[in-house]
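hey
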């Protein structure tokens, strides 16, 4: 995956191009998480020049990578970031305001957590509308598998959220979060029916599984 789009935008005068992607829109439990990611092109070029250790060709939409591959890549991705940040919205906020508004809230928090102020954003096409950022942006069809900085953000966000859910599994040990990270697997739904909802579950997503 190349930096073609990011480089074109920089050549047009944009200084800080930020890729954004979210993970966790669909699970029955846990937060929605986004990552804002600004690639350092000079650092990336140095990594590319290291032919023996260069793994950048493996970077792709996090959904297309195994957990092992994502974890191999995440530290490399962070190494050639100019800046990156995480934003979250909790399961309670998802229940209170809906998944779309919670997604916007997570994006706003992620943006506010950046040290650098982006002047252009790149989003996957399925992302909610983000006019509230008051900054130029573009939504790209299959952006998480086409656009380098979006793919990087998807990997960082996925590893972060998975680790969060694995940590939660120590407290909520009846539900198997360490295996399905909150998604609606058969075993997860069975556990909900048997034990009821934890305070980590999205009640609005679990209505069909509880009495």
């Amino acid at each position: 995956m190349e930096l073609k789009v990011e480089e074109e935008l920089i050549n047009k005068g944009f200084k800080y191009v930020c890729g954004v992607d979210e993970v966790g829109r669909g699970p029955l439990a846990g937060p929605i998480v986004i990552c804002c990611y600004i690639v350092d092109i000079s650092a990336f070029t140095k990594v590319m020049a290291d032919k023996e250790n260069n793994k950048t060709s493996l970077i792709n939409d996090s959904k297309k990578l195994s957990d092992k591959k994502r974890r191999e890549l995440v530290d490399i991705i962070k190494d050639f970031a100019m800046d990156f940040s995480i934003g979250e919205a909790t399961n309670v906020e998802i229940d209170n305001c809906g998944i779309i508004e919670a997604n916007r809230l997570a994006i706003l928090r992620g943006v506010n957590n950046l040290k650098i102020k982006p002047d252009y954003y790149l989003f996957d096409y399925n992302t909610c509308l983000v006019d509230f950022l008051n900054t130029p942006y573009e939504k790209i069809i299959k952006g998480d598998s086409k656009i380098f900085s979006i793919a990087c953000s998807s990997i960082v966000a996925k590893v972060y959220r998975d680790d969060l859910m694995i940590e939660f599994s120590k407290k909520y040990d009846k539900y198997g979060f360490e295996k399905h990270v909150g998604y609606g697997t058969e075993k997860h739904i069975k556990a909900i029916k048997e034990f009821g909802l934890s305070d980590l579950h999205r009640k609005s997503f679990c209505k069909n599984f509880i009495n």
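The chain has one domain: 4-165. The beta strands are 17-23, 32-39, 81-89, 120-124, 137-140.
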